[in-house]
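Sequence only, no structure available. Ideas?
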Amino acid sequence: MFIGHYAVAFAAKRAAPVASLGTLFLACELVDGVWPVFLLLGIERVEIRPGDTAFTPLAFVHYPWTHSLLMCAAWALALAAAYRLVRPDTRAALAVGAVVLSHWVLDAIAHRPDLPFAPGGAARIGLGLWNSIPGTLLVEGGMFAAALALYLRFTRARDWTGLIALWAFIAFLIAAYLGAAFGPPPPSVTVLAWTGLAGWLTVPWGYWIERHRQVVSRHSSLVTSSIQR
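Reply:
I predicted one. Tokens follow.
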């Protein structure tokens, strides 16, 4: 999945209002952010095989250190612990860790059976949502629309930047998603990896959005400032 991961990040803002949107973006894409580095280093492997699934030309051959269940849990624990050290908020730290771990769950729904449970293990899981383009668009699009609606109900722009930064980000995500789904396959794994590293830019973008939006109080119509973390 792609925008499905960001859907979890937007929804998690409701569960952990003090966690910055930038931190939640980091959590939802952490393993996909590390994955291109491991590709360039030769630690993990992917092949470009148009038709491998209907939705993506990528065949994920070997990626246990970023995308196995065990390692996703380890990445989740590491980021949650780091957050807890910086910000003494256990609830927010747990939410950040849960967002990281959700990456494996959503990928298990989308991928064909290629997700390992642990490095070195032979078992693979994947329910194959990517075998259906309409099904993928419906599930991910529905998740993203629902999460964005929740986020918009729970936050409000402080100024015009709070509107423009958010909606520009939404437009960027949708364009990238549709480009990946319907555009030509990447010319090489190296190009794919370097393009994937651009995903890290969503993290400062999230912090930028956060600085210009505020959380709406649950108990009244008053607006309270969100604590940027």
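The radius of gyration is 18 Å.
Hope that gets you unstuck.
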